[in-house]
Amino acid sequence: MTIDEGYTKFVCDWTECALPDLAEIAELCRWRKPLFDAGLIGVYEDIGIGFGNISVRIGRSPDFLISGTQTGHLHELAAEHFALVTQADFDRNRVSCSGPIQASSESMTHAALYRIDESIGAVVHVHSEQLWRRLKGSIPTTSEDVAYGTPEMAREFARIYRVSDFSSSGIAVMGGHAEGIVSIGSSLAVAATRILELQNSNRPKG
Q1: Residue 205 above 80 pLDDT?
Q2: Domain covering 11-201 in this structure, CATH number
Q3: 3-state class of 136 per DSSP?
Q4: 34, burial (CB in 10 Å: exposed 0-12, middle 13-18, buried 19+)
Q5: Domain map of the chain by residue range?
Q6: Cβ(87)–Cβ(107) under 8 Å?
């Protein structure tokens, strides 16, 4: 299986600066840890590339905080490991962000999901080969022809949100992104718990 991860496929307009003191940072750190401990966020040791990311909407605005690029190997994150995304232009393939680190290479997809529905308050993107193989095609799944981190993936999520039960189930498989699974929810607690419960249900009994 080819792992297509870790490379930003959009133009990133990044302003390097400190983030404001936002309560959402502590919430992100809290919920990322069990995802890391479960192996859903981490790093491919053989190739040194991190995977998985987590984000939360700021209030009712389209802005969101997201884990920074190449932070997957870190067991715990702090304020310096997040970026604030303030704009995503799907037609021009550009993302604008600020913070001490550049936003994740999946920021385009996160931005699309927040734009689809104002009730989406958090997005979690994880990797699990077992879950991906078991669920691909049996739950809402993006086209195999669409790569991660692209405007096409952003539009693809908008499509499956309209035509499937993704809006209610909150879980979708990225068909063209090996091992990629996305969870959404009204809050980080909802989005993270959905994927953690799915992971726990996949474990052998006994």
Answers
A1: no
A2: 3.40.225.10
A3: strand
A4: middle
A5: 11-201
A6: no
Instruction: Please write the tens of the pLDDT for every residue from 163-202.
Output: 999 999 999 999 988 899 999 999 999 999 999 999 888 7
| CA separation for the pair 142, 196 (Å, rounded) | 21
pLDDT for 6-26, tens place per residue?
556 788 999 999 999 999 999
| Contact status, residue 55 vs residue 122, Cβ threshold 8 Å | yes
- Give dist(CA 165, CA 163) in Å, integer: 7
Judge whether 149 and 8 are in contact, CB under 8 Å: yes
> Which of 176, 174, 169, 175 lies closest to 191, judged by CA?
169
Overall pTM surpassing 0.90 (yes/no): yes
pLDDT the model gives residue 206: 45
